[in-house]
């Protein structure tokens, strides 16, 4: 069993299908919705944490993509220009998920697996080194 986070982008025509139901019932995947931006009749985005067997998650992602839902691993949607970071710690002060921390040598650590795409780091960083492509 593994946990993986994906950003799902779906077109308006997929809004009438019970996609999450099929992930649970047909593929035995537990889902946790971490963030959602859904606009009726327009595109929408979800940040999902999927928990299940690797093969089931792969089949579930394949099912979603066959229904025109784009599925990208979360870490591909987040960029941090670490080489330009001055390790001020501003981003750690707002990161309630614990994805951004300072180690004993006052270096910034970014654990993308813990990120919930709240986007607070984007505004907290004085050098604007974070970019999150949630849409």
Question: Could you give the topology of this structure?
Answer:
Layout: E1 2-10, H1 19-27, E2 30-38, E3 44-52, H2 54-66, E4 70-73, E5 78-80, H3 90-94, E6 100-102, E7 108-110, H4 120-124, E8 130-132
Antiparallel strand pairs: 1-3, 1-4, 2-3, 5-8, 6-7
Order of helices and strands: EHEEHEEHEEHE
Give the name of the CATH architecture of the largest domain.
2-Layer Sandwich
Strand order of the largest sheet: 2-3-1-4
Largest sheet, strands/sense/barrel: 4 strands, antiparallel
- State the shape: elongated
The gyration radius over C-alpha positions equals: 17 Å
Structural class: alpha+beta
> What is the number of helices?
4
Tell me the name of the CATH class of the largest domain: Alpha Beta
Q: Indicate the percent of residues in helices.
A: 10-25%
Report the CATH topology name of the largest domain: Alpha-Beta Plaits
**CATH homologous superfamily placement of the largest domain:** ACT domain
N- and C-termini, Cα separation: 28 Å
| Unreliable stretches covering 5 or more consecutive residues | none
Count of discrete domains: 2
Would you tell me the overall average pLDDT?
89
